[in-house]
Amino acid sequence: MDMLSARQLAGAPGGVPHYIPQAQECALFEHAWRCQLPLLIKGPTGCGKTRFVEHMAARLGRPLITVSCHDDLSAADLVGRHLIGQGNTVWQDGPLARAVREGAICYLDEVVEARKDTTVVMHPLADDRRVLPIERTGELLIAPPEFMLVVSYNPGYQNLLKALKPSTRQRFVALSFGYPQSAVEQDIVRSESGVNADVAAGLVRLAQALRRVTDHDLEETASTRLLVMAARLISAGMDVEMACRAAVVDALTDDTDTAAALMEIVGGVFDSP
Ligand code: ADP
Predict the structure, then answer these.
(1) Residue 121 domain-assigned (yes or no)
(2) Residue 217's pLDDT is what?
(3) Same domain, 148 and 233
(4) Do 25 and 133 fall into the same domain?
(5) Are residues 43 and 162 both part of a single domain?
(6) What is the pLDDT of residue 252?
(7) 263 Cα to the center of ligand 1, angstroms
(8) 99, 66 in Cβ contact below 8 A?
(9) The CATH number of the domain where 148 resides is what?
(10) Please, which residues have CB within 8 angstroms of residue 130's CB and are 6 or more apart in sequence?
């Protein structure tokens, strides 16, 4: 099975969103796509899952249809519904049906948030059948080989009511994402913002220090996304501490004492060489 060559990549239509790999995830994605297997990406928010899927869809030359799942999202929202027009009803495909017809990559972000009835439409698409039955019209869509279902979830948010059922997760090839290794994260911060290597290294040291914090009740910790936001502010000329406060500390907590403690960490990181 051939991996994509640099030449093919450079020639990909519409440009390929910039993505710096953490490990072998690009090869895994490509193998899964070629083997017609669906993919489950696990990882904390802001660690690069969406950018990775955008990058891979472009590399493989497939359209990407992304759905941000929420607790009101139903099977009908994914599959489609009849709309009442001028005196008649017309069927309108939902994003999943459109993706199947177009042979696109369909990315369901935070899939555990969606309503339980969405699993009914995911299951026959995510196993060997690769079909999407549209009950309302009696149609049975057969997924072309290019179609791929990709779902993501954040295990950190998971509670018992919102766990993925074993019968769902065992249909997917799984890929675990974490925050990138220090050198990779520095490259990401630098290339996404234009800050110099010293600032990028400082921001990554800050993230590592914040990720070690356990004595404050933080729901989430500093993600690569927050570092990139801080770096962009700094690159635009904002003072480093102010940027870290706005993009990182205040994004992590509303509590003034916790914010003060986190700002001490910021001061410590940027005072030391
Ligand atoms: P997630 O989907 O996991 O919440 P995103 O894919 O939206 O996270 O990543 C947030 C931001 O972090 C991206 O917009 C990008 O600027 C940056 N980023 C994270 N990982 C990478 C990476 N490996 N290569 C390039 N940019 C990255």
Answers:
(1) yes
(2) 76
(3) no
(4) yes
(5) yes
(6) 95
(7) 24
(8) no
(9) 3.40.50.300
(10) 36, 124, 142, 143, 147
CA of 167 to the centre of ligand 1 (A): 29
The H-assigned helical ranges of 62-214 are 75-79, 95-102, 118-126, 166-169, 182-193, 197-211
The residue whose C-alpha atom lies closest to atom 5 belonging to ligand 1 is 48
| Residues making up the chain, counted from first to last | 273
Which residues are 173's β-sheet partners? 39
Residue 258 lies in a domain: yes
- Separation of 226 CA from ligand 1 center, angstroms? 10
Which residues form the pocket of ligand 1, taking CB atoms under 6 Å from any ligand atom? 18-20, 43, 45-51, 188, 192, 224-225, 228
Centre of ligand 1 from the C-alpha of residue 87, in Å: 46
Looking at the structure, do residues 189 and 160 belong to the same domain, yes or no? no
Q: What is the pLDDT of residues 92-120, one digit of tens each?
A: 999 999 999 999 999 999 998 899 899 98
What is the domain range of residue 219? 182-271
* 188 and 165 in a common domain: no
Sign of CA dihedral 85, 89, 95, 100: negative
161 Cα–ligand 1 center, Å: 28
- What is the distance between the alpha carbons of residues 89 and 84, in angstroms, rounded to a whole number? 4
State whether 217 and 172 are in the same domain.
no
What number does the ligand 1 atom closest to the CA of 18 have? 25
Supply the DSSP string of 68-110, one letter for each residue.
E--TT--HHHHHEEEEE-SSSEEEEE-HHHHHHHHT-EEEEET
In a domain, residue 197? The reply is: yes
Which residue lies with its CA nearest to atom 12 of ligand 1? 225
Residue with the smallest CA separation from ligand 1 atom 19 is 48
Q: pLDDT at residue 7 above 80?
A: no
